[in-house]
TrEMBL record:
<dbReference type="InterPro" id="IPR002524">
    <property type="entry name" value="Cation_efflux"/>
</dbReference>
<dbReference type="GO" id="GO:0006829">
    <property type="term" value="P:zinc ion transport"/>
</dbReference>
<dbReference type="GO" id="GO:0016020">
    <property type="term" value="C:membrane"/>
</dbReference>
<feature type="transmembrane region" description="Helical">
    <location>
        <begin position="79"/>
        <end position="99"/>
    </location>
</feature>
<dbReference type="InterPro" id="IPR058533">
    <property type="entry name" value="Cation_efflux_TM"/>
</dbReference>
<dbReference type="InterPro" id="IPR027469">
    <property type="entry name" value="Cation_efflux_TMD_sf"/>
</dbReference>
<keyword id="KW-0813">Transport</keyword>
<keyword id="KW-0812">Transmembrane</keyword>
<dbReference type="InterPro" id="IPR036837">
    <property type="entry name" value="Cation_efflux_CTD_sf"/>
</dbReference>
<feature type="transmembrane region" description="Helical">
    <location>
        <begin position="119"/>
        <end position="137"/>
    </location>
</feature>
<feature type="domain" description="Cation efflux protein transmembrane">
    <location>
        <begin position="13"/>
        <end position="222"/>
    </location>
</feature>
<keyword id="KW-0472">Membrane</keyword>
<keyword id="KW-1133">Transmembrane helix</keyword>
<protein>
    <submittedName>
        <fullName>Cation diffusion facilitator family transporter</fullName>
    </submittedName>
</protein>
<dbReference type="Pfam" id="PF01545">
    <property type="entry name" value="Cation_efflux"/>
</dbReference>
<dbReference type="InterPro" id="IPR040177">
    <property type="entry name" value="SLC30A9"/>
</dbReference>
<feature type="transmembrane region" description="Helical">
    <location>
        <begin position="12"/>
        <end position="36"/>
    </location>
</feature>
Amino acid sequence: MAQEKEESTLTVVLAGSVNLLIAVLKLVAGLVTGSAAMLSEAVHSFADTITEVLLLTALRVSRRPADRAHPFGYGKARYFWSLLAAVSIFASGAMFALYEGFSTVFGEAEEQTSPLVAYLVLAGAFVLESVSWAQALRQVRRDAAEQGRTFRHQLRFSDDPTATTVFYEDSAALSGLLLAFAGVGLHQLTGESVWDGVASIAIGVLLAGVAFLLGRANAALLIGRQAAPDLVFGIRDHLSAAPEVDAVVDLQTMLIGTDSVLVCARVDFDDTLTAGELEHVCVRLAAELQSAHNDVTEVFIEPVPRTNTDLRAAVLARYGERPGVSTTDPNGSTVDDLRRG
């Protein structure tokens, strides 16, 4: 856990330092060459630098311990600040790039000066950005391996927005550099500044797309997304396998922070258990889940009868009924049907 925290911080700090240096170089090149694409890329890098500051804030705040006001901790603060980072990418980078692009395309033609400066800065920025991108890629791959997921699956279901944000951000940065290079090159070859503007518009669209993807992912985490399916199935199977359990009637999970999952289970226990035995079983099962799954930090188990029609109807209303399963069957295993349906 401590190693993961240190690597997340390293990824963000490295990305922020690289972006700040690149932003200054791009700004100088943009002012010297008069390239709209270069100026858009400069603002893009400044926006990325602001993003890293927001991500560092997310890391710092989310590590605060639980207290009376926040009994489940501050884990979701990471999602809030990461959502602001996505907004920053859109508001600062995308909007400016689109404005510069349309102004260049529909405005008066501008003469290009010293394109060599732009090429040198773009080449240097590509090398520096690749270093940051490689670190983010390495962390996402390591996290995917630890979770037993594919790389794509990790990007979709990761509960750590810092690494994925830096990865998407740096991927967009590398793509933006190629677009800027194309814009400057076509401007030089044709003498038409419109290509510079088109490149700037393309950069704006690229940043808007990345901001949308990050915003959607962090909004889902902030609202309260279910844990990854493999973890949900693992929890369900563990509870179902207990000898004292007749059926798992309902199972709800929610990510309450990075590597932190809240589990609420409604379970039909063996009716021969005494009240004291039932209490001990609930405590034991909670401890087993936390031991078997490192991400499970809070467990609440509620004993319920699976024959309760109101409860079964509520579960089916939430998840939808699987074709061929009767809602009136009191012996049906609700969670088994719904989770695999």
